[in-house]
Amino acid sequence: MSTQPLPTGTRDVLAEEMRELRAIESALLALFAARGYEEVSTPTIEFQDAFARGAGPEGTATYKFLDESGSVLALRNDMTVPLARLVARRFASEPGPFRLAYSGSVFRRVRPQRGQLREMRQIGVELIGAEAPAGTAELIELLVASLDAIGLQSAVIGLGDADLFPSLLTELGVEGPARARILECLAAHDLVAISDEAGDLAELGETERATIVALSDLRGGPEVLERARALGGPAIERASATLAETLAALEAAGVADRVQVDFGLLRDLGYYTGAILEVYDPAVGEAIGGGGRYDDLLGRFGSPQPAAGFALYLERLHVAQAAEQELGARR
Amino acid sequence: MMSLNPRDRGNDGALTLALPRGSLFEGCLGMLDRAGFDTTEPRSDSRALIFELEGLTIVTVRPSDVPIYVESGAADIGVTGKDVLAEQSDRAVYELVDLGFGRCRMALAARTGSDDLERAERRLGLMRIATKYPRTATDWFERMGRQAEVIEVKGSVELAPLVGLADGIVDLVDTGRTLAENGLEVVDEISVCTARLIANRVAHKLRAGEVDEMVGRLREAARG
Asked: A285 and B90: CB-CB below 8 Å?
C-alpha cells in the first residue's frame, strides 16, 4: 500500500522537534507575559473583508472559501490584522496602551520546490496605543530580549522607514506606472534595473537614479544617517530624523548595537507606516522575523490610534537556534 | 578545511562567491584577475568545485544553479547571466551590478528564409516554440499579444524546428553561429543579457562592509 502524501509546504512534527519548538514558544510567551504582553487568540478563519480592509489588495488571503450563507471566509495570512480588529472591536472604549501577545499559524501561498511553508507559526506582540519613538523603542528592546531568551545572540535587527521611498518618489514627481515599477524594483533590490538608463525607467533623471540606488544600498551603524542626509531632500531628512530619534531611544535602552539602520528596507505588507523591522541570523538565508509601525491600521477598523508590533517565525528561529548552539559548542 | 556551511560558520571566514561554469566562466576569472585574486587554481583544476582564494571562497556551479545557491545563503554573492535571473525572477536575491561582460541576445529564431512562424500563427492560431527559457518565452509572447505553445526542452534547442517539434525557438544567441550552422536565423530580439552580480539578502545586511568592499572591487575590475 502506498503512503498518503501531504500538501506541498505542510509537514508533520515529531517528538524531538516538537519539544524544541515548544520550548522556544514557551520561553517567548513567558518573556512577553513578564513584560505585560498577555497572550490572546483570534480565530484561524475570518471574513476575507477583514484582511482586505486592514492590508489592502496586498493583504488578500490565499485560501478563501464560502460559508453556508455565501460569505467569503479566509484562512489568516497575517496575525496583525486580526489583532488590530480585536482591539478596535473589544476595547474601543477602554484607555490604552494595549499590550498583546500571540502564537499561531498563518497560511501563505508557496512556490513549488522552494522549501517554503504553506502553514507557518508566528509568535509575536502588538503594542497598540503607544506612539513613536517611545513605543517603537519599547518593542525593539523587547525584540532584543526575545532573541537573547532563545539563544540567538548573533541575530541582528534591521531598522528602516516604510514612508521613505513613497514620499521620496512623490518629491521627485514620479507617479503612475513608473512609481509602481520602481517600488517593485526596490522591494526586490534590483539595483541594475533602476540604474539602467536604457531600461523601462527611462524617465528618471541621472541624479534621481543615483540617489535612489545609493539610498537603497545604505545600511550600517548610526553613521549612515549622515551619509543619507548628504543625499538631500525633505523625504530623506524626515526619515533620517525619525530613525535618529528611534536610535536615541534605543541607545538609552542599551540595545542600539543590535540594530542596523537600513535605508533600503521594505516590507511587503500594505499597512506599515514609519519604522519597519526585519530580523536576520547568519544561519538562515532569509529574515527570521519582521514588524514595524502601523499607525493607520486601527483607524481602518474605526479606532484610530498609533500602533506597532513584531512577529518571529518559529520554524526559522529553530533552525537559527540549532546552528547557534552548535557554533557555541565548537568555540 | 573550515566548514563552508553558513549554519556551521556563522559570519566567520571569507565571503563565498558562486561562479557559473560555462560560457561566463572565463569572463569571471578575468574579472577576478583584475581584482587582484590569484586564479591559477580554478583555471587549472576542472574537477574541483571549491577553491579557497586569498580572502574569497569560490564555488563553481551550473549557471542556472547560481540563484538558488545565493538565495539560500549557501553562497553570499554570485555571478550569473541576466537570462538565468529573468527566467528565475521569483528568486529572492539582490541584483547589484551589471558586470557588462557575456553580452548575448535572447531571441526568437526560426528556419532561415521560412515563414513557419507566420504560417502557424495564421492557420493554426498559435506557434509552437521550443525553449530552455519557458517563463521568459511565455512572458514575451504574452506581452506581444501573440499566442504560442511553449515547449520546454533541456538541450539542443536548435533541433526542434528542424524535425518539426516546434515552429521556432526562443534561445540565447551569442555570435549566431550555432543558429546558422543549423539553418536557423533570428526573427525577433527579446532582450539583451549580460553577467550580473547578485547577493544573498541576509549576507547583504549582516556582512554589509565586506559585501560592499567586494562588490566595489568586482565592479571596478569588470569595467577595467
From this structure: no
Cell 514612508: give the residue: A163
φ, ψ of residue B195 to 5 degrees: the values are -75, 140
- Which residues in chain A are closer than 8 Å to B95, comparing Cβ atoms? 188-193
pTM of the predicted protein model: 0.89
pLDDT tens-digit readout, A136-164: 999 999 999 999 999 999 999 999 999 99
Using the CB atoms, write b or e for B20-43: b if 16+ within 10 Å.
bbbebbebbbebbeebebebeebe
Instruction: Name the CATH superfamily housing domain B104-192.
Output: Periplasmic binding protein-like II (3.40.190.10)
Contact assignment for B96 to A191 by CB distance below 8 Å: yes
Q: Show the cell assigned to B93.
A: 536575491
Q: Using the beta-carbon criterion (under 8 Å), do A220 and B8 form an inter-chain contact?
A: no
Note the pLDDT tens digit of each residue in A35-94.
999 999 999 999 999 999 988 776 678 899 999 999 999 999 999 999 999 999 999 889
CATH topology of domain B6-102+194-223: D-Maltodextrin-Binding Protein; domain 2 (3.40.190)
Domains plus CATH for chain A? 15-162+238-330 (3.30.930.10), 163-217 (no CATH)
Which among A192, A286, A319 is the top mutation candidate for probing chain B, defined by the most B β-carbons within 10 Å of its own β-carbon? A192
* CA of B84 vs chain A CAs: smallest distance (Å): 14
Write down the ipTM of this complex: 0.86
